[in-house]
Amino acid sequence: MGVISISETPLHVLAVDDSNIDRKLIERLLKTFSYHVTAVDSGIKALEFLGLQDVENFQSFSPNPEEEVNLVITDYCMPGMTGFELLRKIKESKSLKDIPVVIMSSDNIPARINRCLEEGAEEFFLKPVRLSDVDKLKPYFSKNDRKTTDEEECVSSDRSRAMDDDDGGDVDGDGDDGVEAWSDENEQIEKDQSCHHKMFKIEDVVP
Amino acid sequence: MAAVPQLQRQFIEYTTSLYNEGYLDDQFTQLQKLQDESNPDFVAEVVSLFFEDSEKLLNNLATAIQQKSVDYKQVDSHVHQFKGSSSSIGAQRVTNVCVHFRNYCEEKNLDGCLRCLQQLKHEYILVRNKLEALFRLEQQILQAGGSIPMME
């Protein structure tokens, strides 16, 4: 079902930031490079845009091939779901894990930066983000290089092609695809790592 | 009505002083670079959002700090937002107050927080007035048929 496009469709960036000023800024910066931009104000909305079907249980991704996202750029500190949690969800999802993710943060905290990079983020930009940062995005874009029909999970509502294991799709008909449950334990880890705990003094940080 | 070159010189001098006195930093220049014929009001739009956000945050801060039992995490959360938005538009002095404010929040120092809130209000009003004056100057230049000098 993969659509190989050799046309000049602009690369599509999904920008996620709860600050309206920063959303406006990042959108303008991205459009300077002629990217097509969708800007949302939360991690949940980002996941929904990426195809999340079951919001409450974070299950069942069904990406819309017409809205293919080639890169996600997200703020780290957001209420509800942090950028790190969003990064995790994307990297844990079979259908989304190949989408490059870039994190932005106003706080220069080396431990945070490393954690994001270890979790699979391509880059970490310190805010305020500049044109020179956005210029660095070019090599990270994915475009129609998703897995082939043999390997990819079912991305349409037609579940008949779902494989007989945990490759996605609702195999047993219980309404979920058995892969993406968000456990309480994960939530606890994330709360410990959330933006407003463990505040660091600016002086403690690498200059 | 002053001549265009005079107005432009005034504009350059005023802008330079804002940078020299630390009201604005390079991020403001970055914003101006993003303004062009297809986005002619970009800076004004962003600054307008900043004004709206700031006034809301200052109100929220006043409320949070006046609670019988102050929730410092909540206060810090507002200041963090304020720090973010001020740094995104280059309002350097406002950002600097936010940094100190966050330190007082971490220490749960009520006095320090109260002082910082006053300072924050003060610096915000200053930068708001200065930016409004800058936009008025720009309008004068445009109405006189001139163009806004690009600051490097």
In words, what does this structure look like?
The complex is a heterodimer of chains A (207) and B (152). Chain A is an alpha/beta fold. Chain A folds into two domains: 6-136, 3-Layer(aba) Sandwich (Rossmann fold); 141-204. Chain A has six helices and seven strands; from the N terminus they run βαβαβββαβαβαα. In chain A, the strands form two sheets. Chain A has a five-stranded parallel beta sheet, with helices on both faces. The longest helix of chain A has 13 residues, at 20-32. Helix content of chain B is 77%, strand content 0%. In chain B, helix 1 packs antiparallel against helix 6. Classes of the chains: A alpha/beta (207), B mainly alpha (152). At the A-B interface, helix 1 of A face helix 2, helix 3, helix 4 and helix 5 of B.
Structure characteristics:
heterodimer; A: 207 residues; alpha/beta; Rossmann fold; 2 domains; five-stranded parallel β-sheet; two-stranded antiparallel ribbon; disordered C terminus; B: 152 residues; mainly alpha
How are the elements arranged and paired?
The complex is a heterodimer of chains A (207) and B (152).
Chain A: E1 12-16, H1 20-32, E2 36-40, H2 43-50, E3 52-54, E4 59-61, E5 71-75, H3 83-92, E6 101-105, H4 110-118, E7 123-126, H5 131-134, H6 184-192
Parallel strand pairs in A: 1-2, 1-5, 5-6, 6-7
Antiparallel strand pairs in A: 3-4
Helix pairs in contact in A: 2-3
Chain B: H1 4-20, H2 26-33, H3 42-65, H4 72-89, H5 92-107, H6 110-143
